Amino acid sequence: MISKLIDKIQKTGAPIVVGLDPKLSYIPGRILDRCFGEKGKNPEGAAEALWQFNKEIVDSVCDLVPAVKPQIAMYEELGIPGLIAFKKTVDYCREKGLIVIGDVKRGDIGSTSESYAVGHLGSVEIDGQKYSGFDEDFATVNPYLGSDGVKPFIDVCNREDKGIFVLVKTSNPSSGEFQDRLIDGRPLYEIVGEQVEKWGQMSMDGSYSNVGAVVGATYPEMGKVLRSVMPHAFILVPGYGAQGGKGKDLVHFFDKDGLGAIVNSSRGIIAAWKSASYSEFSDGRVGDAARAAVLDMKKDICDAINF
Amino acid sequence: MISKLIDKIQKTGAPIVVGLDPKLSYIPGRILDRCFGEKGKNPEGAAEALWQFNKEIVDSVCDLVPAVKPQIAMYEELGIPGLIAFKKTVDYCREKGLIVIGDVKRGDIGSTSESYAVGHLGSVEIDGQKYSGFDEDFATVNPYLGSDGVKPFIDVCNREDKGIFVLVKTSNPSSGEFQDRLIDGRPLYEIVGEQVEKWGQMSMDGSYSNVGAVVGATYPEMGKVLRSVMPHAFILVPGYGAQGGKGKDLVHFFDKDGLGAIVNSSRGIIAAWKSASYSEFSDGRVGDAARAAVLDMKKDICDAINF
Q: Which of A129, B7, B82, B283 shows the greatest Cβ crowding within 10 Å of its Cβ?
């Protein structure tokens, strides 16, 4: 699967993923009114608004980017109707030819991780027929439980040509509380990074592995170290834009060919229509604003890495 | 919320939680046939079977135990129909007066953790009315992202009188890979445990906090240390029975009053009808076998801790 992602990055010239993390506050009144009118002022109506909002964005940016990253928490917040909107979003993005990274941050003991892996990346067989649960292309995975929590995901990746990104160094301010603590003189995130490289050997797909890593744009120096600790791990980089990261900070996340990393922006793209920088779209043209924001982000990053 | 759990433990005399982690292989043919007949041989039929299986177990044990712990992965594996069965299970258990610990192991950056916290423990407000997503009483939380990933859960706990159990030392064989690594001479799980104690101060509810900890039954020596590192954290103890833990190993997880911990068993109870120890129920009497297994587990633990 990572080779498919690399191929799409090369075709679009954009090592960019659009984070589909909608909140009701990002959605213009015309969409909210229509959806609450259709489904009621309730979680069903709110979930419909998330989905219709996503659709406008996806329709506007699907020719520009290789991938999207829906954050399942934003949907799970609304319970079952929200998760139905998540599934609709995943399916629609795949229909539009986008690679879908499910930002689910799952991870558990072995037999339980296997269920998560099957639900998000694989399929269950009932009476000889296969059924997929959510069917993303990649999922993000939490490493705290160690190898037996991660390997069931790798097994499913190998069986179904899917991929994962393991949390190594997250983009949030308190990520250092545990991740930066020194073990034999080296921070925990490096120890986890080394393990990601080892796990990666179990699922190589070209020069990179289907086992990638999450490293926040907000920690560029650590990105530099981790790039060399994990030479075969593609890096998913959250934290660009609204969280503070800029293109020039990200140079060392990439390899010499401008590959090896893909940068996510969520709010900066999907809520661009509300931002002062894109005030020409402030009448609720979410798709046009998202498109403009993607083009600006592409220029910022590609200029920095000469891609 | 932790005071409600303690009250229920005292009333039932059973510091026991039944893990509702059903797999199709645990479900007798009579339930599978009925559900596949009603809903089709597909994920809807399979999810109906999980739910009807759970209902038989809950009906048989609800007077004996204070709480249940559905593991959401087992439901998420089946996609949306599975999650509907999860929600039905949560609602039914609460109707029966059981405290529901959602074993969801969520955790993300701040704003995203807030969505998970709202979806599992809180409610969204739409047009002045509140709607709950899954509405468990407790949720399990992964600490890898640090304080800003955990605090949104604590805020919701305080607002809605709910609780969490933070993963400290998990029960699986490879949990030591990161959790046991030494930081300034002390294992990571102790550092996390110390932080759990600090987080706990933000949500005290009697002698214990609404912020508890997960410590595996399979590591009794570590349970002893962690009991003293986290004097205000109630400990949720997975790994009893099928994973290897026994009552006598668990003495030090408890305080001097026989409180301070609650022990989970999943397979050992819900699949007891398939085990050689309960062969008198092997004709598919899942509820009767579960009841017998709960009573045996209660005796094993209460004898060990003199509760």
A: B82
Indicate the residue of B77, B127, B170 with minimum beta-carbon distance to A133: B77
Residues 255-274 (A) with a CB less than 8 A from some CB of B: none
CA–CA gap between residue B105 and residue B211 (Å, rounded): 14
The whole-model pTM stands at: 0.97
**Residue linked to tokens 């059924």:** A131
Q: How many C-beta neighbours within 10 Å does residue B306 have?
A: 8
| Cβ within 8 Å of residue A292, ≥6 positions away | A272, A278, A281
With a CB cutoff of 8 Å and minimum separation 6, the contacts of B264 are: B16, B17, B18, B19, B69, B236, B237, B238, B239, B240
Q: Which of A36, A42, A110 sits opposite B172 (nearest CB)?
A: A110
pLDDT means per 10 residues, chain A with 307 residues, are: 98 98 97 98 98 98 98 98 98 98 97 97 96 98 97 98 98 96 97 98 98 96 96 96 81 94 97 97 97 97 92
CA–CA dist B263, B249 (Å, integer): 11
For residue B130, count other CB atoms closer than 10 A to its CB.
10
How many whole angstroms separate alpha carbon B300 and alpha carbon A290?
A: 61
Contacts of A257 (CB under 8 A, 6+ apart): none
Instruction: Please tell me the distance from the alpha carbon of residue B252 to that of residue A53, in angstroms, as a whole number.
Output: 53
ipTM over 0.95: yes
**pLDDT tens digits for B187-213?**
999 999 999 999 999 999 999 999 999
Fold of A2-301: TIM Barrel (3.20.20)
Asked if B199 is an interface residue toward chain A (Cβ–Cβ < 8 A), one would say no
Side chain identity at B17, as an amino acid letter? V
> Is residue A208 a contact partner of residue A256, using CB atoms and an 8 Å limit?
no
Q: Would the CB atoms of A77 and B129 count as touching at under 8 Å?
A: no
Domain spans, chain B: 2-305
Alpha helices in A96-204 (DSSP H): 110-120, 147-160, 176-179, 188-200
Identify the sign of the CA torsion A119, A65, A211, B191. negative
- Which of these is catalytic: A23, A39, A55, A105? A105
pLDDT average, residue stretch B59-78: 98
Please state, in angstroms and as integers, the Cα–Cα distance from residue B97 to each residue in A121, B65, B100, B270, B295, following that order.
Answer: 36, 10, 9, 19, 19
Q: What is the mean pLDDT of residues B171-179?
A: 96
Q: Is A182 on the interface with B (CB under 8 A)?
A: yes
pLDDT tier, B6 (very low <50, low <70, confident <90, very high otherwise): very high
Q: Average pLDDT, stretch B252-276? A: 96
Answer whether B291's CB lies under 8 Å from B61's CB.
yes
**CATH of region B2-305, choose from 3.30.70.360, 2.40.30.10, 3.20.20.70, 3.40.50.300:** 3.20.20.70
A186-187 and A204-205 beta bridge pairing: unpaired
* A31 token code pair: 């969409």
Partners of residue B36 in chain A, C-beta under 8 Å: 127
Q: Map residue A237 onto helix, strand or coil.
A: strand
Q: Would you call A123 an interface residue with chain B, using a CB distance cutoff of 8 Å?
A: no
Q: Average the pLDDT over B176-193 and give the result.
A: 97
Q: Which of A133, A142, A148 sits opposite B79 (nearest CB)?
A: A133
